[in-house]
Design brief:
about 625 residues, alpha+beta, Creatine Kinase, Chain A, domain 2, CBS-domain, 20 helices
């Protein structure tokens, strides 16, 4: 869907011209559908595989442009960030051994990429969100330097008129803001395309919406972002918020996010879905190609509907309707966008077999869904699956409530098997891939569950950064074993490797759960807080979260040794605190931080970003670092 030849709609004249082409495309599509010009009678599938590029320390490696110049293969292309990439497979007819061929093709291209990446001391990882990604990776300099990404980023930033805000609740809570769309680059997905005839499109699309919740619950693989344990499929919340142009001041208006599940079933044709998107969403980009689709049809030429495809590419529905031309014939597709990349190639092909089988076998009782099932229940099922995965209870037909495992195992897997048999898929492949789904769901061992269990175990013996590195390394190591996720052993701390992988900068060892006080707090209160929490130093911050001072145990001892008369002169922490404490930035190397502590003769070090207090390091943190270093040198 990413079109290279686009530009920002910078003025009303340019917008007017683009909208005219857009309306012509709608008319042309309506004409092709009404006159049976859309291809039917054949099922084709397509795959877009997104991946993360990592360096030797398991951090994002922004090398995509260098990589592409070396590999020189059109199957490989860019994504928003230079540390991601995409592999586009050739369309396949959905029959016979296509699933086995899909696995072979993905393996072949990934192996080819890995061979090239050795030149850059880098690797590929299949994961919905890279556990080791950091705020410092999400800078505009890491955006892929292509006009389409710059145009999209600029358009969204202009419409947003402020920071992009993030608030995601899970076991932990993420509350942050960012000034660009680069948070979207945390997401990597496994996107599937399924060709549908025009006459059958409405029922198949609504069915695709209905099954989204259970399919997602069986396949979650992105539970951790910036060290926070959030949703089982955090990508769903993250993607919506990362390009959301709505603002909190708009709370009285009902506006649609450009990333959405939708608001209602479609009723008449795919054209209605496209029309709704034109009504609901402002045009952001213009294509530079000029062609009158209606005139092309009059001349006997099948139009590419460039304007419609550009607009459609800026609206990120989890099930997206698509138009295209293959082998000279126009066709319609449903694009599944909600599944994460990974955990393995074989897991992804199992997910594909599951979804394609369900799409192929849509039971007759699920036609005409608008009269049988509330759309909001389908949407609720989807969001529950994203949030809690296989722990979900879904509302189904007749308002029956079923657990995710019961619905998938008792209803969905038999339907998927029927669909694969109906499409003459190799029976050994059916057994192989649907068996993986059955084992994964029965055991509850999704990619998300593995990642959470691994991370929780690792945190018992290592730092947060060490646990994230070990988890990431373990994902790569298990992927090389070519076993599906339900057979993976948990990550172990040794997989984090050499201490240099996670002990380079002060932000990798600092604590962010900091006890702080205010300048106007009573000295007696602060003394009790230090006793209760067993800490020697406490930062003093203002209402904006800015560092304004530091109170130490030594200062309190000196204060308590004074006479009652002297104490009465000083009752607030502002009368006692150090007003210019030693502070460093998160990027300070650990060795430089240690030197600073020795030179300044301090037992703690405050970490600030700008003026904001973001972390704290004490001598106890360096004891842990030293213990690891000594262990590695044995």
């Amino acid at each position: 869907m990413g079109l290279n030849s686009v530009s920002i709609i910078s003025n009303s004249k340019k917008k007017e011209r683009f909208v005219k082409y857009l309306l012509n495309d709608i008319k042309a599509l309506e004409f092709m559908i009404e006159n049976d010009m859309i291809e039917s009678g054949i099922q084709r599938i397509g795959i877009e595989q997104e991946l993360c590029l990592v360096d030797a320390t398991w951090r994002p490696a922004p090398i995509i442009m260098k990589f592409l110049s070396k590999i020189n293969d059109p199957h490989f292309t860019t994504e928003l960030a230079q540390f991601n990439m995409e592999i586009n497979l050739e369309p396949m007819t959905f029959t016979s051994d296509c699933l086995g061929q899909l696995e072979l093709s993905l393996s072949k291209y990934i192996k080819k990429a890995e061979n090239i990446l050795q030149q850059f001391n880098s690797k590929l990882i299949l994961t919905g969100i890279l556990p080791t990604i950091r705020n410092k990776d999400l800078v505009i300099t890491n955006m892929t330097p292509l006009d389409r990404y710059k145009a999209m980023a600029k358009s969204l930033r202009k419409l947003r008129q402020g920071m992009f805000e993030f608030h995601i609740n899970g076991t932990d809570e993420l509350v942050t803001a960012h000034d660009t769309v680069m948070f979207e680059s945390c997401n990597t997905s496994f996107q599937m395309h399924y060709q549908v005839s025009a006459n059958d499109f409405v029922d198949r699309y609504n069915w695709a919406q209905l099954i989204s919740g259970p399919v997602l619950a069986a396949s979650t693989n992105s539970p951790i972002l910036l060290g926070k344990r959030l949703w089982r499929e955090t990508r769903i919340a993250l993607f919506q918020q990362s390009i959301d142009i709505r603002q909190t001041k708009d709370h009285l208006r009902e506006r649609s996010s450009r990333v959405s599940f939708g608001k209602r079933w479609i009723n008449d044709s795919i054209v209605d879905a496209f029309k709704e998107d034109i009504v609901r969403y402002d045009t952001l980009l213009s294509n530079n190609k000029r062609s009158n689709s209606v005139k092309l049809l009059d001349d006997g030429i099948i139009p590419t509907l460039d304007a419609l495809m550009v607009h459609n590419s800026t609206i990120y529905k989890w099930n997206r309707p698509c138009y295209g031309i293959y082998d000279g014939k126009p066709h319609l597709r449903i694009e599944n966008r909600y599944l994460a990349s990974g955990p393995t190639i074989i897991d992804q092909v199992a997910n594909a077999a599951f979804w394609f089988g369900l799409m192929s076998a849509m039971p007759e009782e699920y036609r005409n869904l608008p009269g049988k099932f509330e759309f909001d229940n389908a949407k609720s099922n989807f969001l529950k699956a994203a949030s809690i995965g296989l722990e979900s209870k879904f509302i189904w037909l007749n308002n029956e409530k079923l657990s995710a495992q019961d619905l998938i195992l008792s209803l969905f897997l038999p339907i998927a098997k029927e669909g694969l048999l109906k499409s003459n898929i190799n029976e050994n492949d059916i057994t192989k891939y649907l068996g993986i789904i059955e084992s994964r769901v029965s055991s509850g061992k999704t990619g998300s569950q593995w990642m959470i269990e691994s991370y929780n175990n690792l945190r018992k013996t290592g730092t947060r950064d060490q646990a994230l590195v070990a988890t990431t390394a373990a994902i790569y190591n298990r992927q090389q074993e070519m076993k599906p996720i339900h057979l993976w052993s948990l990550a172990n701390i040794d997989e984090a490797g050499n201490f240099l992988n996670y002990y380079l900068h002060i932000d990798q060892i600092m604590t962010t759960d900091i006890v702080t006080v205010k300048a106007d707090d009573l000295i007696e209160l602060v003394a009790n807080i230090m006793d209760w929490k067993q800490v020697k130093d406490i930062p003093v911050e203002n209402s904006k979260g800015e560092l304004v001072g530091l109170v130490t145990a030594g200062l309190l001892v000196n204060y308590l040794c004074k006479s009652d008369k002297e104490k009465k002169k000083k009752s607030r922490i502002k009368d006692l605190m150090i007003t210019n404490p030693v502070a460093v930035s998160p990027e300070t190397s650990i060795s430089d931080a240690l030197k600073t502590m020795i030179e300044k003769k301090t037992s703690s070090l405050i970490v600030i970003e700008g003026k904001k207090l973001v972390g704290m390091v004490t001598d106890r943190h360096f004891v842990k670092v030293s213990a690891k270093l000594i262990g590695d040198l044995k």
